[in-house]
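pinging the channel bc i need a second pair of eyes. not urgent but kinda urgent?? the chain im working w is below, pasted from the shared doc
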Amino acid sequence: MATANLTVTVDTSPAIELGTRVQVAILDTLTTARATGQPVDDEALAGLTASAVIAELLRVVPKTPAEDEAEEYKNNYLGACKTIADMHAAAVGGVTGPTRGVVEDVADVRDAMLRAEQERDGAYRERAQLVAHLASIYPSHIGYTDRSAPDWAVVIVQTPTGQMSWHVAPSDMDLFEHVPRSRPGGPGWDGHTTEQKYKRLRALTLRKKR
């Protein structure tokens, strides 16, 4: 009769050789079986020996560094996949309702940048409207004289209080169809600064009041 409910406990101390550990484990199991009156035949003994050897090998055979590294990479990969899945589930409300996370933060930054660009473009458009009106009153021309912004036109306006100039975005050039392009030998930028330009504009405003 085979004994089916015998279990083997192997001592995994590195100071004891593999064969000795297996033998001790089997003897301990047999002693316990006989003490409790359980019969042990050849089939049961063979099964105990096989299970003891397998258990010992599974417990004490060390992994190679390559195997440890491969397992670490696998665990890191699985952890990253779980993190991404959790982020997605949180973003779409698939866990406990909508939860803020990296996905939402990125979307908010993108929306904020888009709004800032729209506001900036709107401000440029308003300024271009005023410059276009000023260019319709005084002699003006358009050049592309700024090497740091070659795609932006420079509208140069000659007023009684001095020259003024403004950069115009490509999207706003439709407002300046009435302004001629620069011609060779025509007046170029006189080197005025932004501060000088607005002092001249202020002087022009006060001059008009008189």
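so The first strand starts at residue 140 and ends at 143. and Residues 2 and 44 are 5 Å apart (CA to CA). — does that match what u expected or am i reading it wrong
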